Amino acid sequence: MPRLPSQYRQCVACRNLYFRSDLFRIIYDRQQQTVQLLQTSKEKTRLFGRSAYLCRAMACLQTAMKGKKIQKALKTSIPDDILICLNDALKGNHPGGYTESKNL
């Protein structure tokens, strides 16, 4: 398999490649036991941990939720508030940025 440039990531639902800035990033930090949502790559926040990327299509969010693709990619459960933030952001109701959920 050819190596991809570092700015491309794959959506967990549709498996298409996109620029990293076009995707939502969901991060699981095992040490702190937190799941975090990064909605834009322009933020200066550096987050480490297992990541899953989701494109900005409502169909992909529904596919990911139905098949538990985000949970499988992160190997942990996803809190409801993260899924609600994703849903709101895709509908245009969420301002964007960074969301954190603790205590898994």
CATH architecture: 2-Layer Sandwich
* Average pLDDT rating: 84
Q: Quickly give the structural class.
A: alpha+beta
CATH topology: Hypothetical Cytosolic Protein, Chain: A
Say how many strands there are.
Answer: 6
Secondary-structure element string: EEEEEHHHE
Largest sheet: 4 strands, antiparallel
Approximately how much beta-strand content do the residues carry?
A: 25-35%
The CATH homologous superfamily corresponds to: YlxR-like
CATH class: Alpha Beta
Helix content: 25-40%
User: How large is the radius of gyration?
Assistant: 13 Å
Number of structural domains? 1
Enumerate the strands of the largest sheet in spatial order, edge to edge or round the barrel: 5-3-4-6
Description:
With 104 residues, the protein is an alpha+beta fold. The protein has one domain: 2-Layer Sandwich (Hypothetical Cytosolic Protein, Chain: A). It has three helices and six strands; from the N terminus they run E-E-E-E-E-H-H-H-E. The chain has helices spanning 58-66, 69-74, 80-91; strands at residues 8-10, 17-19, 23-29, 34-38, 50-55, 98-101. The strands form two sheets. The protein has a four-stranded antiparallel sheet with strand order 5-3-4-6. A hairpin with a 6-residue loop joins strand 1 (8-10) and strand 2. It is globular. The model has no long low-confidence stretch (mean pLDDT 84).
